[in-house]
Amino acid sequence: MTDPLPVPEEPDHVGRIRATVARFVADHCPPAARRAWDQAMTWPREVWAAFRALGFTALTVPPEHGGTGVDIPAALAVVEELSRAGPFLAGPYIHAAFYGGLNLAENGSAEQKAHWLPRLARGEAFLAYGLSEPDVGGDLASVTTRAERDGDSIRVTGVKRWCTGADWADAILTLVRSGPANERKRNLSFLLIPADARGVRLSPLAHANLRYSGSFDVVFDDVRVPEGAVLGGPSMWNRGWEQLVGRALAVERLEIAAVALGMARAALDEALAYARQRVQFGQPIARHQAIRHRLADAAARLAAARAILAAAARAVQAGQDGGLFTSMAKLFVTETALEVGLACQRVLGAYGLSDGFDMERNVRDLLGMPIVGGSSDMQRNNVAALLGL
Predict the structure, then answer these.
(1) CA–CA gap between residue 266 and residue 128 (Å, rounded)
(2) How far apart are CA 264 and CA 365, in angstroms?
(3) Are residues 162 and 266 in the same domain?
(4) Can you tell me the distance from the alpha carbon of 380 to that of 376, in angstroms, rounded to the nearest whole number?
(5) What whole-number distance in Å separates Cα of residue 273 and Cα of residue 261?
(6) What whole-number distance in Å separates Cα of residue 127 and Cα of residue 172?
(7) What CATH code is carried by the domain that includes residue 46?
(8) Which of 126, 142, 158 is the endpoint of a domain?
(9) Phi and psi at residue 167, in whole multiples of 5°?
(10) SS3 117
(11) If exposure means fewest CB atoms within 10 Å of the residue's CB, which of 36, 285, 327, 373 is most exposed?
(12) How far is CA 280 from CA 90, 127, 241, 275, in A?
């Protein structure tokens, strides 16, 4: 079906990429497969192999390291289109292109870029995040996982929580306390810790949404890594806060927004199709005003969400965002997408709760979007502060 939403003005090459990904999803991600992946809490390696051959994992990597150049609007368009089939390809794409490619391109040392970026550009490597802890969520300056220099190596002890993909990622990008806790932001570092390093233990966490992968508590029990594991090299020891508030990690807000937008578009597509074919009281329910208005409102809200995400992506690409646009986009798009998903679910009635439709999974996934990647209230705080309040 033709996409009912207006597309904000975007470069021709982004439109071509969007169309290519949409065709790939239609050909390789049928509804029955999506439901099977969700039940198994996995992502399809064989489909991923076909997808990465398209070359879109290179969109966040500079040409000198095997990429096509950092193109954030194009990469986010890929995320959005993949997410129309759920998180099963969008998740691995983010782990490769954003957690890996963009972070290393922005913050990696020369040696780290040479080692990681060519593989990330080919979609052959993945990073997981080690940010949250059992007692630390949004207040990342309070992390307690400790890293201490010990000769020419670094010793790491502590626990990270909600490390999605830690069982299949090549390394965990881990935020650690590398100095006295009372200095907070001045004593944080990022480490690239191999997921199979001695002393790394995983404990699975049950979760209902984004079931392309398990999520884990990761215990670092006297894990040792070389000084070269510091993101950006040894000179970035105790300078992790600069990286945390930089462009690469700020773009996570837009990644989550793009996922939410894609899922909400899928929910709207399904609700529109259902309303056209479901007959009650002698006519398709799409002829009933209550249903028509609900779907009209959903389409209008998603068109606005698509516009603000596109504008934020352009601003970040141009280096013109200091956090305001990304926070606004994450707040507005994820909250709007959830509202749209719930409205579309009501159109399907009881079928919106069954496993015979994608609606139940999309709503289940959308429920988490205002929480993950920085909660809506944290984004409101960011916006208020940047407005000078």
Answers:
(1) 26
(2) 10
(3) no
(4) 6
(5) 18
(6) 6
(7) 1.10.540.10
(8) 126
(9) -85, -10
(10) helix
(11) 36
(12) 37, 50, 58, 10
Do 229 and 340 fall into the same domain? no
Q: Do the domain assignments include residue 2?
A: no
Dihedral angle, C-alpha 49, 50, 51, 53, nearest 10 °: 90
- For residues 318 and 323, what is the distance between their CA atoms, to the nearest angstrom? 13
* Start-to-end C-alpha separation, the chain: 45
Query: Which of 218, 240, 262 represents a domain boundary (last residue)?
Result: 240
CA distance 374 to 381: 11
Residue 315 near residue 254 (C-beta atoms within 8 A): no
pLDDT in tens, 31-87: 999 999 999 999 999 999 999 999 999 999 999 999 999 999 999 999 999 999 999
Sequence-ordered strand ranges (E) for the chain: 127-130, 146-150, 153-160, 171-177, 188-194, 200-205, 215-226, 279-280, 283-284
Among residues 203, 191, 329, the alpha carbon closest in space to that of 256 is found at 329
Report pTM: 0.95
How do beta strands 127-130 and 171-177 pair?
Answer: parallel
Residues 255, 230 within the same domain:
no
pLDDT tens across 300-357, in order?
999 999 999 999 999 999 988 778 999 999 999 999 999 999 999 999 999 999 999 9
User: What span, in angstroms and rounded, lies between the C-alpha atoms of 52 and 23?
Assistant: 14
Q: Which residues pair with 200 in a beta bridge?
A: 220
Task: Compute the distance between CA of residue 295 and CA of residue 299 in angstroms, rounded to an integer.
Answer: 6
Residues 148 and 71 in one domain: no
